[in-house]
Amino acid sequence: xxxxxxxxxxxxxxxxxxxxxxxxxxxxxxxxxxxxxxxxxxxxxxxxxxxxxxxxxxxxxxxxxxxxxxxxxxxxxxxxxxxxxxxxxxxxxxxxxxxxxxxxxxxxxxxxxxxxxxxxxxxxxxxxxxxxxxxxxxxxxxxxxxxxxxxxxxxxxxxxxxxxxxxxxxxxxxxxxxxxxxxxxxxxxxxxxxxxxxxxxxxxxxxxxxxxxxxxxxxxxxxxxxxxxxxxxxxxxxxxxxxxxxxxxxxxxxxxxxxxxxxxxxxxxxxxxxxxxxxxxxxxxxxxxxxxxxxxxxxxxxxxxxxxxxxxxxxxxxxxxxxxxxxxxxxxxxxxxxxxxxxxxxx
Length: 347
Ligand code: ADP
Hints:
Blueprint: H1 3-10, E1 28-34, E2 37-45, H2 49-64, E3 71-79, E4 99-106, H3 114-129, E5 136-140, H4 148-152, E6 160-161, E7 164-165, E8 168-170, E9 173-177, H5 178-181, H6 188-204, E10 211-217, H7 224-232, E11 237-242, H8 246-261, E12 266-272, E13 276-277, E14 283-284, H9 291-299, E15 303-307, H10 311-318, H11 323-326, H12 331-346
Parallel strand pairs: 2-3, 4-10, 4-11, 5-9, 5-10, 11-12, 12-15
Antiparallel strand pairs: 1-2, 6-7, 8-9, 13-14
Helix pairs in contact: 3-12, 6-7, 8-9
The protein binds adenosine-5'-diphosphate.
């Protein structure tokens, strides 16, 4: 009976609430096998002891399926979660001084328009709050393809003042992006390890000033990078963006479950690229119909609304002025405004 065979069996055990397994999460510390007995050592960083118990039960069940193993002993060492690094850690990050609410925009997969949505949402909220002289920030955490600088028409290196980073500003919104700090040709493999550190700095060392709301554009996906980010940022809640098609809604739900796991409330689901409005006013449902509403129903959260598939939304983003500002009277801008209103009301 090889260690590898036992390892393979352990790789079928998922971390509770996640689609990833305990081996790939690096939780297995030791594997011993002699005379039919498997002794497994696991180390988990969590404050939730039911997680450890669940993992132990699942390992025992998985190894029962292996004919050569007559008995199993699992020892789990639990480290209390201090830093938000490990799945299941329930650490609550502290707030950003001067900032009232931080909300995140998440998507299960890339290309659903998460950054387009984030930039327009920030602009729409900013317009709503302008009469009260309240300001909005936009934090771009999409390490793999930071597109907020392009969409907001802002670039260059932020200034440093007394060891604090001064956010750049565009359309009245304070902006920080990985894109300001990472060159386009930085290899993607370097970005993963950089993110946690950089995001902590964005939270702790950026002079945001007094802001009512910061909108955070999360990286797409539901892996470790997203998880540790969500645990680093003091989030008031998150919006899940999806397109109407089934393939996107399924991953959107996975993303939502990750958020729930970290106790971040889901403020609702928004559907992007819902339909194309034809010249005669009829609608073509290019990516299918109803996925956003279905996702919201499945998650038991509110459906926030639809954003049409509109070439002017893309053009406005490419030109550095989101449609909410470039063409505020358009139907597309109105759809962002409606969602912004319901978010502000919720907060
Ligand atoms: P993500 O952040 O999810 O990867 P982006 O916001 O970068 O997605 O959008 C992907 C592409 O789709 C961009 O070129 C963007 O301009 C375009 N896009 C996003 N939403 C819409 C929309 N509602 N109508 C038209 N184009 C859109």
